[in-house]
Amino acid sequence: MYQTWEELERDCLLCEKCPLREGRTQVVFGVGNRNAKVLFIGEGPGEQEDLQGKPFVGRSGQYLDKLLASVGLTREKDLYIGNIVKCRPPHNRDPLPEEQDACIDWLRAQTALIKPKIIVCLGRIAAMKIIRPDFKITKEHGVFYEKNGVLMMATLHPAALLRNPAAKPGALEDFVRLREKMEELGLVAPETFPDEPCP
User: Fold this and answer.
1) In terms of Cα–Cα distance, which of 34, 22, 32, 61 is closest to 45?
2) Residue ranges of E strands in the chain
3) pTM
């Protein structure tokens, strides 16, 4: 078990556990506040993430930041973001089960260092890996589950929201619920937000 972020990141950046290493520009380790008690988990890096070495920096990442801002949260202050797989799958395809299995220990080590009180899965792949294999994202997004003493919720992937704008209001409600849960647990101070249109 890793004792420090520095050791963990050093080893992760050198990872050669699966064939995804062959096509990567760089390993996408994770970003955010390493002392936060909220962990966001995506499925894997896309093209921009692979180029910049950070998760959720492309169009979907920009939309994620808007959703967070709409409830007064930022990735720098309030949460940490990682992915199931740390290297980009070819052509942004879903990471294969064997790729997820090869990579998941890095995320487990990150989780052990953070000790999150809340985990938010971004999209179907992450929810099926982290919450349970038969998770139905369209029906169960925004619902909190408790697993091993940690509250877990899934929301629709920002990329899916950009493809299907009709789903945006439901996703915004998920973020409102997240903010309320964070306030309930004392992770952020209570705050009132003006009624604004969905970003």
Assistant:
1) 61
2) 31-32, 38-42, 80-83, 118-122, 145-147, 150-155
3) 0.96
